[in-house]
Amino acid sequence: MACRSMKSSDAYPTLNRADAIAAIEMARELISKTGPNRLSLFETEIIELSPKAQEKFAELLLNPPEPSAGLRHAFARHRQLIRRMQ
Fold first, then answer.
1. Tens-binned pLDDT, residue by residue, of the chain (86 aa)
2. Domain annotation covers residue 35
């Protein structure tokens, strides 16, 4: 098997996609051990982000914006509904 050399900028998207595919395969393996009806929980579509978009995504995960008034209201409503169910 011949080994093809890649520039590091070429390798990143390939490795990123391979990592995503491996994660899906691991999830499917877990599903096969827990039951086929749970497969729909793991059906997914791979979304490829540019390096700039990946940085922005990571930044927002690490430093999320303050919740909006609508989101705070939704959290409060959710808490009320959960308390009623208990």
1. 445 555 556 667 777 777 778 777 777 777 677 665 555 555 667 788 899 999 999 999 999 999 999 999 999 999 999 898 88
2. yes
Is residue 52 within a helix (H) or strand (E), and if so which, with residue range? helix 51-62
**CB-based contacts of 60, cutoff 8 Å, min separation 6:** none
Instruction: Examine residue 32 and state whether it is found in any structural domain, yes or no.
Output: yes
Q: Is residue 40 part of a domain?
A: yes
1 is a domain residue: no
Number of domains in the chain: 1
The answer to whether the CB of 21 falls within 8 A of the CB of 46 is yes
